[in-house]
Amino acid sequence: MPRLQPSSTEPRPWSQQPDQAGRFGAYGGRFVPETLMPALGELAAAYDEALGDPAFQAELDELLEHYAGRATPLYEARNLSANWGGARVFLKREDLTHTGAHKINNALGQVLLAKRMGKKRIIAETGAGQHGVATATAAALMGLDCVVYMGTLDMERQALNVTRMRMLGTRVEPVTSGSRSLKDAVNEALRDWVTNVRTTHYILGSVVGPHPYPRMVRDFQAVIGREARAQILARTGRLPDALMACVGAGSNAIGLFHPFLDDPVQMIGVEAAGLGLATGKHSASLSAGTPGVLHGCSLYLLQDEHGQVTEAHSIAAGLDYPGVGPEHGLLKDLGRVSYLTATDEEALEAFMELARAEGIIPALESSHALARAKDVASVLGSEAMVLVCLSGRGDKDVAQVAERLGARLEK
Amino acid sequence: MSVSIDQAFALARQEGRSAFIPFMTGGFPSPEACREIVLALDGCGADVIELGIPFSDPLADGPVIQASSKQALDQGVTPASVLALAAELSPRLKAALVVMTYYNPVLRMGLQRFAASASQAGVSGVIVPDLPPEEAGPWLEAARGAGLDTIFMAAPTTPPERLEVIRECCRGFLYYVSMTGVTGAGLNVDQELARGVARVRQGSSLPVAVGFGVAEAAQARALAGLADGVIVGSALVKRAQQAAGPGQAAEAVGALARELAQGLAQGPSV
């Protein structure tokens, strides 16, 4: 694990990212067909303009507070701390937002931007369905047409969210190509966008894709870290020792980490090791991938020796993606954030432990962070504080977990 | 010595027609059948032949080229094997050979190495649909160093100031994307397209070839008066897919290619 960063007033290499071209060091940028380039320029300009407009931020804040239910609580999980025998553990309760995951923070921000740009139609991709539900919700609220692309494998394992999206008036478009999961849903969403770019805004759900998405999604998710930082300072009078979050493509993690980057706080992202890194069936792009280009940006990628993208695997559909946001690549290379992994099995154990110890059923995605938080908390002293992003709730996962655990649930 | 893109367009111009530019996914429907298809295309009047390097995530392509890419990858086709096929075929072709590839396989092989291999294989130019001029600096250097033409795309959404940037990077010919969409979608050769092509031809000596959605001889004929070249991909790949077997693919593809080439040679019906 990296040493705590010394506090100083010098600019740090992770500050002021990305640059004008959307580069986070060697990562990021804009690698898309020409048809989309003008639209990305317009989107970046519209976003900059919105940032400078107090009315935009006020409208978003209003929605985040009264519609999405922010600020979300920072809950001290004392039973978990007692079980783990170490540091105090705090959970940032993104699972308590409207729609049940952090994804709503970004969906509301982008749908307001779409409205501002005069777009009448929204498209999105989804893996676990949480971003799809958040987008369907925001589109319903704003009266916009919405189509969500979802791999058929994910439609099976996240059937509840498919139904929720349909109830919200969204058309769920099944994607049967490739691994039939998140990566392929992004491909289809991009193909739709290339075709309908003049009328449509693409609400990308994570900190990947062409510039300005990695920056814009980060900014919309940074509300997680800003709140958590203020809450823990108000509650305990000091900063936590470590922050932890699961990392698929990386939006909840960057949202939590970003406002703390200049603080002397250790940060740990947890990727999905699936069946184990050695099996090749995992989604650990930072831990086991190499730099490449996918879905419009340069990023750490799971790929073979010929540059073909390999299929990711995770029990958590929301982590089942072969790349990770460009800013995470930079933070890894700089050693500012360290990245660990948790297997499917470890995530399931953490899922059950949180349910039984605290009465909270977490998303399988968030359970990956909990699985490693246990190790981190148990080696730190009882004065130390670990803050974990509980990025979503687990209702969507109950059928899958029940099937997987079977008789083990009876105990 | 293989034919250059400039030579190919010059010949078409001399003969008073638009250049015919068929595309085929490399290694599809099988590596052997692909070799026969390229030779058939060459024999049917192709001026430039585009050979695609199959990629796992072809986000600019519609279902037909996606499926062909997957089938080729499943048979073990790699960037190196497509370049090896190019090396074998290029000395025998009357047409200029260009390669179309997404950026990641190029990055993975290494820009210099890819450019050198392509050049040694007798490839005249390379199209990288997900590499806009803003990101192309290192690739331009590598490709130019190896003597390859760097072909870029312009789209109906491209504003005039971007068109200038694209032209500066572009060598060989400018690939005009006929519509907002992916490859293989339905195309109307209408006034809007005519205006779009005229716009990108104006004020530049760079030949302009139109692609995306051209499937029939009638469309090719209508485009003949508008553009310096016409690119046909999905429709030919579909013929190869629908052939009774890989052994019949070259004949099936060749039949459509002949119609398209004839349509282009006849020129607009007006």
CATH superfamily of chain B: Aldolase class I
The amount of beta strand of chain B, in percent, is 5-15%
CA gyration radius of chain B, whole angstroms: 17 Å
Shape of chain A: globular
Shape of chain B: globular
**Alpha carbon gyration radius of chain A:** 20 Å
How many structural domains in the coordinates of chain B? 1
Across the major sheet of chain A, the strand order is 3-4-15-9-10-14
CATH topology of chain B: TIM Barrel
Could you give a short account of the major beta sheet of chain B?
9 strands, parallel
Strand content of chain A: 15-25%
Summarize the structure.
By secondary structure, chain A is of the alpha/beta class. Chain A contains 16 helices and 15 strands. In chain A, a hairpin with a 2-residue loop joins β11 (290-294) and β12.
Structural commentary:
The complex is a heterodimer of chains A (411) and B (270). Chain A is an alpha/beta fold. Chain A is 42% helix and 18% strand. In chain A, helix 9 packs across helix 11. Chain A is globular. The N terminus of chain A is likely disordered. Chain B is of the alpha/beta class and 270 residues long. Chain B has a single domain, classed as Aldolase class I (TIM Barrel), CATH 3.20.20. Chain B has twelve helices and nine strands. Chain B has a nine-stranded parallel beta sheet. In chain B, helix 2 packs parallel to helix 12, helix 6 runs parallel beside helix 7 and helix 10 packs parallel to helix 12. The mean pLDDT of chain B is 96. The interface between A and B is large, with 36 and 41 residues.
